[in-house]
């Protein structure tokens, strides 16, 4: 069932709620949307699945610029408030990649409506002011409607995807309209990352139960960021899938759901 919310700045957010039981709110990563966590949710039994499209990701609306993690965390708190009003309970939050950073921001400000955090590889050591010239190149490609090149810049210089992975999966777009839509989403995430820093110690104030999930084949500096996060979070446990990478949530959704199911049972 789709529904709409209005964020604090009146940006429209679109949600989909399925199932019954304690609520689990999923926060997708870059260039994701309502369907990003659908496969994991299908394998998760006994929970109410709440998925929303982040601002700047259709069918949610485009937000104010420049984008920021503060704005996205406020959106997540808006979703949590709606869940509490509708179902009368706190919610587990599951965040993937960029969405995991959003979850950290939300929990650090106000954890009252959060039962636990499950985080898959937040790109904590990829953010920072070094991305400002990357953002300029990205915007120039978009202005020239060279959308595949803009997305390659994002993959190579923002996400640090290895060259062999990029060359093995060339970026193709169905049409110019799709390219424009996707680069608007990616550009908003890039704005927030360029305005953020790499201070992992700030998350030490989060005292919630936390599950850290990662792939054993994920590229640097994702594993280093997970190591640092595990050190500073006081109540974190960890699961690593040795044969998976940063795409584990899409490639092995049943294993991700199994880890979540076991974690939620302990909270």
From TrEMBL:
Q: Which residues form the AB hydrolase-1 domain?
A: 22-248
User: Keyword Chloroplast, does the record have it?
Assistant: no
Do you know which InterPro entries this protein is assigned to? AB_hydrolase_1 (IPR000073), AB_hydrolase_fold (IPR029058), AB_hydrolase_sf (IPR050266)
From which source organism is this entry?
Answer: Mycolicibacterium nivoides
One term of GO molecular function:
hydrolase activity
Name of the protein: Alpha/beta fold hydrolase
Q: Which UniProt keywords apply?
A: Hydrolase
What Pfam families does UniProt report for this protein, alphabetically?
A: Abhydrolase_1
The organism's taxonomy opens as:
Bacteria, Bacillati, Actinomycetota, Actinomycetes, Mycobacteriales
